[in-house]
Each structure stands twice: as structure tokens, then as C-alpha cells.
Amino acid sequence: MTSSVMERQAKVAGKTLNLSDIQGNVVRAYGHIGYFHARYLFFRINDPGNARAFLTRVAERVTNSAYADSKRNTRQTTSKASTNVAFTFAGLQAIELPAGSLMGFPQEFAAGMKKRMSILGDEGSSAPEHWDNIWQKEVHLWVSINGLSNADVEERYQWILRQNKDSGDGVELLSGHRGAAGEEDLMFQTGAILRDENGNPSGKEHFGYRDGISDPVFEGQPNAPDTVLGRGKLLAGDKWAPLAPGEFLLGHLDEAQEYPKAPMPRSLAQNGTFMVYRKLHQNVATFRRYLDDSAAQFEGSKEMLAAKFCGRWRDNGAPIVDAPDDAGKKCWDARFEAADAAEKRRMLTDFHYNDDIDGARCPMSGHLRRMNPRGSLEFGQKGAFNTPSALADRRRILRRGLPYGQSGPDTNDADDHGIIFMALNASIERQFEFVQQQWVNYGNDFKEGNDKEILLGNHTGEGKAVLQVEPGSGKPPHFLTKLPRFVECRGGDYFFVPGITALKMIAAGIVDPT
Amino acid sequence: MSNIAGKAYAMNVITPIRSRYSFINRWLFGKATKTPAALLGLVTLSLIHYARWVIIPRNSFPHLDASQPKEELNYDYMIFQSNFNGSWAQYVDSFTFAIPAGLDLFWKWNVRYPKSVPLTPFHDYIRHNQIDTCHYYSAYPMAASNDVKSAKVLKQALCDFDKASAGKPADEFLTDYHALLNAMQLHLGEMRPTPVVSMAAQAVKDRHSGTPEKVQGFKGANDSAEPVENSASSRTPPAAPLSSTDAPEYS
Amino acid sequence: MANTGGGAQALTILSPIKNGYLGETTFADETFKRCMNIRIHEESPLAKIPDTYLARLYVLNDVLYESKPANDTILNLNDLFSLFKGKYRLRGLPKTDKLKSRYLVFSSNFHGESDEDLDRYLKNLYLHWDYTDYYGKRHDIHHIWRHCVAYDKVKSADDFVSYMRKCALDTSLFFNGSNGDSLKEQLKALYLKQELSRFAINHQGKSAGEIQTAWHAFIDRVRPTDLEAPSWKPGQSTVRTS
Fold first, then answer.
1. Backbone angles phi, psi at B233, to 5 degrees
2. Where is the DyP dimeric alpha+beta barrel domain positioned along the sequence (chain A) (predicted)?
3. Which of B98, C72, C188, C238 has the fewest Cβ atoms within 10 angstroms?
4. Which residues contact residue A415 at a Cβ distance below 8 angstroms, ignoring those fewer than 6 apart?
5. Is the pLDDT of residue A106 over 90?
6. How far apart are CA A55 and CA A63, in angstroms?
7. Do C209 and B170 meet the contact criterion of CB atoms below 8 Å apart?
């Protein structure tokens, strides 16, 4: 496909995406408009009638995706804080969605995250009995507030509580979040972007990596043509194209040229998506210690080893396939320094593994390769598949989370810090669960047997990873041994994020599956 | 049901095919057997231990005795049987994502085959025409097809190295040893019991690992224990193994 | 015929099950139940049959189909003719098939390409098939095949071989996505793969002398050319702690 055809397609799709009917944070992450602070609230529906009245009020201020339209001056068209709403399956039952509609939801969503624990590998310290108190309760409704400042978030929070009170307390705000000072029963989960020593947003997470660099790009995103390199799907001839919108939005064609499985009526599903909410605790002290210990035996710097874990260097996110070692990193940095903004963006995302089939640069168990193998599952057999990235295109997820907690130099594992991981996809089973199950906690697709992804794998202290080296160099690969669990799940669930119209229909109680 | 044996899944799909077209399928299969490029996608997917397509002409179902009624069928039937790694959805999906054209080629002549893209009709087609396996056995439940293949490569390399390095001084030995690991760096994945890839896999695992008191046999419609045979006369068990050389022992 | 490929062979057996009852259960349902009650992995009778890679048992109850088969996928003249006369539409309607027998299907992938290999394999099935089911009862192979048509004539291993050959179907396309080495060879290779990985991990960064000494001990222990032992057992489902 030529780039002009791609651009034309993107333009057409852009026109057909009704941004004002899609909830905010879906088409474009809130981080882009300076919403660096967040609160996540979870409610139980006690009185469906009053709950619908509450939702009707809230729906008036639910933030949509219009700010993602690049033609508009975004900051002026959005308020200082956002509000978004999503339901668990139990929540949809509690709000009395008709059975005909309920039955159309996918089975994994209906089961909820806890019942999928064996598929997700949520065992040991990630098992549901260790989750925050709130996940020991039945959660129905998720309401998120993102804002420019904590004060903005607080103001919106009070507004939401008022709406509930004024509509007869149909819903109950559930407590049970763990907090930084050892609290067990906080009323909400906070999240906030981490800042560097100068107080500027760093875009990093607690292990020190820059996060959220190559989120998928799909048709209809206003900026798709500019950002597609390395973030869309890989076609023959190393060309990139945006993914089909139906991979992330219900009611739109997906990569299999069909509409994703969704409930009836169509208007209930239209412009909705499914969200995976997971509180991922990071064992920061364990991570730092393990990195130090392993670096002592590693041929290369500690930062290079950290880059091997992830596939990106920690300081500026340089992809390790283009900056494969300490010397290569210096060259890359020099080019990066000299580049303009567009070129910088390209350098961070525009790569693949065609020249790294053996994993000598980005290891087979490295985070980036496992999360999005791009064209590498063809293992160099060009033309074997329909397109080079055929096995990856339907496994992509949009990541919309934020870090929570702090991790100073003296932090320990017990501190409450990590990432509020929020993934959006059209099929939780085919996309998020598959990646978690096959690529994070297992390695067969990468010909690595049961070896898990290094950073997120549900390690037990026995597992290993192979850091491959240049084939034919005569050097042995480096083995990471006795991998501890760096990241633990502390709770979460699966949510349906309806489009704005659908939300209003649910709130009005007029969903008609006929 | 027991479609799962460790890392392997047993799929059986039986679909009708018009007798007058089944020769096309046979011809295609013959071609595919002789043309390795035709199967490149399948080989690269590397999810399959062994798979087969069996076409039964409508008058060729096994008939063993005059007491057995002869089948009278309108269509030929194609049985597809596969031993693959991963979950059902992963396998079916990978086929349609990666090698849709190949799939269509093999199934095209089957009655009401929906084509491999879009996915849902193809899912339904396979799911509706799939027959569950009662008992499934894999000689290596902890190994995927990838592991079996890479183990062969590794065993050869290990033996070659051991022979070549014999009697060498330690530093030369080390150079060779590092070269061995370098050459084998993509063959060193750990093999462990399969992770749970589906709720069905969880069920199979639970049944197999349950305590004897808890694990129940599969009960028939009307019995709580094995019924007494009342038809065939009881028979003698097979004779003892021919000889010790014919009866290999595994240690 | 394409039953073989790369050292492996595909065996597809369809044994018709007698129409009739054992007590109040049809022979086919009884056969189904017996197959369901075979324990898996190491405890499967197939673990005792030499050179069985992967094998399965199921009961084909009918040539079920998701709906009535529809018309031809390419041109169907009946559809065109029905413009003129209704009877052509009727003629073009799909037909429904029903099997008159239910079939026990045994499908195996095993090592060996020749006809003699097949005979030997079938003979081993007869001789070595021995297992204890989920009820704790021990059975031979007759327990599974007993209710098949004409199986009562099977009195010896040779009878069994010729019986099975009568039930065997030709494969139209056999895809060998693995390799066709003997099972003992495959299992030994898997064992060595696991052991070499562990050796490499345990000796990372050690001195040349240490590694060389350890290597000799390693070879003495794993005996790479000895296919009998140490090795993985057929059907082994857990990692043994050594």
C-alpha cells in the first residue's frame, strides 16, 4: 500500500469516527492534554432506579474524545478535569440491562477477571486473596477522574458524590484501596504521572523505564498518518499502516473485516470498548537489587542490562534494536540530540526485528518483543504469512494507565507503588488475555519453552531468561537466573466502556435488544 | 471431554464434501505433499506436531460384517485431525490471521465452507463440526512441537561437541563450549507443565490431579458402577509379550 | 496414499460399533464411557505402546453438521432453472445424511514408515495395552473394542492386526510438523535439552577448568547416546526433581 493510499484511507476513516460519541482517553491518552492526576472510584449499585438517575446526571459531564481532533485547540475545548464511566458485567446486571443484551457480551467479560486467574497466571502473590480489600467486594461501576491538578480532581470528585446524593444514593462508593501510609480502606485509588528531580513529568514508571511510547495506531485517529511508523501493522516491504479501528472500538470493522463480538442492540455497543483495570504493584527494591546483582556478571553496563530486560534504554527510551550496546547507545543519543521533534518520535518507534531474528539485540524474553513482536514471529521466513505482523496485529492493546505511589532511593517492596494498568481492546480474550497468557507467562511462540517475559512474568524465583548474543560470535548467551517476581497483581476487573450515546441509553433504561 | 494432553490439543473436524469435487481436494493434497513451499506458512506457524486430512468416499466407511448395515450417504466426508499447541482459539485464529489463503484452498470444496476471513463464521464452522476427543495421549505433555524439533538439533550439537572437545586443554574446551552455547542459544527454553490456556484445560488438570476419592469416572446414563457384560462371552486377555526384546522397558 | 511423512505414520481407524444395548446403555455409549475413563499422561495405556507420539480415541456418532448442507459453492444450475420450474428448486435443496453405525475412532501418530512398521505397531497395541481406569479397575485392549462389529472374531494378535487393517482409512494429506525420529530418540533429546540448559545456567561465569571437569561428570550422568536411561518417560507430565 502506498503512503498516499494510506493517508487517504486514514482521512476517510477519520471522518467516519464520531469522536464526540467515544469516551475520553480512548482515541488519545489524557496525558497528551496534561491530565496528569487521576482518581479511580468504584461503586456498587444498590438501587437501580436511582443509580440510573445518578448516571443520567453524570453522563452530562462524561468526557468524550473530541479533544483528540487535532484541528481544534484542545486545551480550550476541554475542562480542567474529566469524568469517565464503565461497568462490570455484574454492574450491567445490577442496572437491569435487558437479558437479551447481557447475553451478547463475551464470556470472559461476563466471568470477570478473578475467575480468569488461572488463564492470567494470577497465582502466588498475585492471587486474588492478596488483592486490595475492594476486590473482595462486588464492584459494579468504575468512575474515573483525570485532571490538570489535584485540586481540579478533588472538585470533580465532590461534584460526583453530590450527584449521587441528589439522586437518592442509588450507588455506594466502595472503600478498600491500599495507600502509601499503610492504609487498607481508602475510598479511591489515586494515580499520577511521576516527575523528575526538577518536578517535570518524566513519563517513567517506578523501575525507571519510559512508558507508553508505542501505543497502537488505528485508522481514524486524527494523528494516525504521522505516528504510524512502528505503531501500526507491518506490511510487506517494511511499510506500516494503521490498524483497523475495530481492534479497539466496537461497531467498527476489525482486522478480520468484521464487526467485533458485541451485545445487541448495535447502538449499545457502538463506539464502546472493553477495559482491563489492573493494579500492578512493583517490587522496586527487588528489581533494583536483582539488576545490581546481575549486572556484576554481565558483559556490558548496568544500564545496558536494564535495556535488555525491556527492549528500551531507561534514560530516553532508545530502542535496543537500534542502540544495541553501550557504544551503539552513544551514537544513537548523538543522532537523537540533533533530531527535530518529528524525527525524535520516529527514532523511538520506527523499528522492527527483521535484523534481529536471533534476539541478539532485543532478547526473545525482553518486554518489548513479547508485548508486540511486530514481524518477528515469521522468524525471517519472508512471505510465510499473509503479512509479516499477521500474528501480532490482533493482539494489540491501547494502554491508558498511570503510575501510583512513590519510590524514592530508600523504598522497599512493601511500599504501595506501581502502575494502574488500564488496557483497552475490542476482545479481552483475544487481545489482553492472550498476550498475558501466551507471551508474558509462557514463551512457546518465541521458541523459548516456558521461559516468561522478564519484567511482567509471574516468576517464582526459579525461572530463567536467555539474553541472546550475536550468532556466530562464539560468545555464550547470558542467562538471567532465579528470576523473582518484579510485578504483582493487586486487583482489578474487566469493564465495558460504553459510547456516550449508549451510556445515556443505559442511564435512561431504554436499551432495546428486541 | 479430554481434548487436551499437556501442551497438545486434539482437534477433529468432519465436514461433508460433494463427491464430484472431492477429487479436486485429493489432487490439491497430492500437490501440497510434493510442494514444500505450499506448506511454508504451516511450517513457520510451528504450532502443529502432526495433522492429517482423511477423505472418506461416501461408500467407503469401513464395513466389516453382513450384520452391519451398509451406509447410504449423499456426500463424501473429510475428517481433519490435528495435534496442535496452545488454545483452540489461538490455533484457529493463527490460521486465519497468518495463512487464510492456504486454509481456503484446502476447505474450499467442502459444503458450506465460509472462507477463513472473516473470522467468526470460520470459528463457527470449525466449532460446530468439531467432535470432542474422549481420550487423548501425548508422549511428551511438557513439550511443544518447537521443543521436539529444537531438542533434535541440540542433541546432535551436544554429541558433536562432546566428541570434538574430548582431550582438549581447558581453555580450548571453554572456547568450544561457548561456541556450543552460542549455536544453541535459541534452543534453551525451559520445559515445564503447560500453563492453563483455557478453562477447559483447567478442568482436565483438575480431573487428573484430583485425589482418588474425589476423582470420579465418567458415569453413563443409567449406571453408578460398571454394568456386567451381558453380550459377548468373556474373553481371555492378550497373551504375554512375545519376548523381552519385543517389549521395551522405559526406565 | 499419504499415510507417512518424515519417518512418521498416520493411522486412522474407524471401527463400527454394534447397534444394540449393554444393559440399558447402547454399545456406543458404553464404548464412549470406557474411553472417557482412561486415565491420562503416564497412566494412559498408550504410554506403553512403543513409538506412539500422539494418539486419541473418540466416538463418531453421526456425520453431524451445523445445519443441512447447502447448495454448491460454485454454480448451481438448479438455482437458475428454478426461475422456470419449482421442482428444480426442490432438487437443489440440501440432503441430510445419517450414519447407520456409530464408529469408534482411533487415531495415532507413530514412528515408522513401512507396512511392517504398521503391523508391528498394531501388534504392540494388542500386546501392551494395559491400564487402570478412573474407577481403579484394570483393563486390556478388549475392554475398549469389545462392542465393535465382528470384534468377537479377534482371538490373537494377528487377528487384531488384520481387524484393524480392515478398519483403517487412507490419509489424503499428512502434515508432519515435528520430526519422525523414534520416540526414544525424541524423549532422550528432550531430556538432554532440559539438562543442558540447567548445566549452562549452573556454570555461567565459572573457570575453564571447573566447567571442563563438571562437563565430564555431566556426560557420565546424562549418557547422551544411551536412549534407555536416563531419559523422559513416555507421557511424563511433570518435571522430576533430580
1. -70, 150
2. 22-176
3. C238
4. A180, A284, A405, A406, A407
5. yes
6. 13
7. yes
- The Cα–Cα gap between A383 and A63 comes to 44
What are the residue ranges in chain C where pLDDT is below 50? 241-242
Minimum distance, in Å, between the CA of residue A379 and any CA atom of chain B:
8
Asked if pLDDT for residue B229 goes beyond 50, the answer is no
Helix axis angle for B88-98 and B100-107, nearest 10°, is 100
Return the C-alpha cell found at C4.
507417512
pLDDT of residue A121 exceeding 80, the answer is: yes
Contact of C212 with B173, CB cutoff 8 Å = yes
Q: What end-to-end distance do the CA atoms of chain B give, in Å?
A: 30
Confidence band of A46 (pLDDT split at 50, 70, 90): very high
H helix or E strand, kind and range, residue A16: helix A3-16
At A476, which amino acid appears? P
Q: How many domains does chain C have?
A: 2
Whether C204 and A479 lie within 8 Å, measured CB to CB:
yes
pLDDT tens digits, one per residue of A421-461? 999 999 999 999 999 999 999 999 999 999 999 999 999 99
In a shared domain, residues B170 and B104 = no
Domain with B97 in it: 4-131
| One domain for residues C120 and C52 | yes
Do C204 and A481 count as a contact with CB atoms less than 8 A apart?
yes
Q: Which amino acid is at C55?
A: A
Residue range(s) defining the domain that contains residue C105: 4-64+97-169
Given this model, what pLDDT does residue C78 score? Answer: 64
Supply the DSSP string of C219-231, one letter for each residue.
HHHH-TT-SSSS-
Pick the closest to residue C61 from B130, B229, B76, B223 (CA basis). Answer: B130
pLDDT at B232 over 50: no
Looking at residue B114, what is its pLDDT?
Answer: 83
Which pLDDT tens digit goes with each residue over A289-302?
999 999 999 999 99
Position B197 in a domain: no
Residue A236 has pLDDT above 60, yes or no: yes
What CA–CA distance (Å, rounded) separates A149 from C175? 61
State yes or no: pLDDT of A272 exceeds 70.
Answer: yes
- Cα separation values, A400 from A10, A211, A215, A395, Å: 22, 10, 9, 16
Residue with cell 480468569: A116
C186 and C145 fall within a common domain: no
Residue B27 in this model has a pLDDT that exceeds 50: yes
d(CA C192, CA C181): 15
Distance CA A466, CA A458 (A): 16
Domain end among C137, C169, C201: C169
Q: Is the pLDDT of residue A27 over 70?
A: yes
**C204 neighbourhood in chain A, CB within 8 Å:** 297, 476, 478-479, 481
User: Pseudo-torsion of CA A297, A302, A305, A307, nearest 10°?
Assistant: 180
Q: How many domains does chain B have?
A: 2
- pLDDT tens for A350-366 read 999 999 999 999 999 99
Q: What is the pTM of this model?
A: 0.93
Instruction: Please tell me the distance from the alpha carbon of residue B100 to that of residue C62, in angstroms, as a whole number.
Output: 29
Distance in angstroms (rounded) separating the CA atoms of residues A478 and A171: 54
Residue C81 placed within a domain: no
Q: Using the predicted structure, report yes or no on whether residue A224 has a pLDDT greater than 90.
A: no
Q: How far apart are CA A53 and CA B213, in angstroms?
A: 53
Hey, are the CB atoms on A474 and B117 less than 8 Å from each other?
Answer: no
Q: Are residues C152 and C114 part of one domain?
A: yes
Indicate if the alpha-carbon torsion angle A85, A102, A421, A413 is positive or negative.
positive
Q: Which chain C residues are within 8 Å of B25, Cβ to Cβ? A: 172
Size of interface A-B (CB pairs under 8 A): 127
